[in-house]
Amino acid sequence: MVWLIIRKWGIGQTRNATLIPIIALMVFLLGFHGEDLDVNYSARPLAKEMARDAPDFKVVAVEGVRRDIDYGLAFYRNEPLIHYSTDGVPKEQHLLVIRTSDKEGLSRWLSGRVYEPLFLYESQGLEVYKVYAQP
Known about the structure:
By secondary structure, this protein is of the alpha/beta class. The chain folds into two domains: 39 residues; 90 residues. It is built from six helices and five strands; from the N terminus they run H-H-H-E-H-E-H-E-H-E-E. It has a five-stranded mixed beta sheet with strand order 2-1-3-5-4. The longest helix has 28 residues. The radius of gyration is 22 Å and the shape is elongated. It starts with a helix and ends with a strand.
């Protein structure tokens, strides 16, 4: 299509010839599949669900999550996250976000602590747990 437009109307129409397919692609992706992209690749819905289901838990810890989830949660919650691997396990109550495949490590990280599952975020393969303060 770009080649045909340039051939018919000349090189001066290059901008329009390339802009039209880009706009069409953006409308297709964001207009028809924007919500799917948000649920599967953004931390915004996860942060909203965490705030709705556990509003009294302000501290969030992560272990083994993707970088985009790590940075996205920090951005949407407007708070730094605690990383179990580098910062250790916090003594106060907190929410823990882990990959579903890593839940075997809960007993190692949280031995002697009370914790319960908050929800499963299946679209990104994550689980969120409430971890109560250390006695």
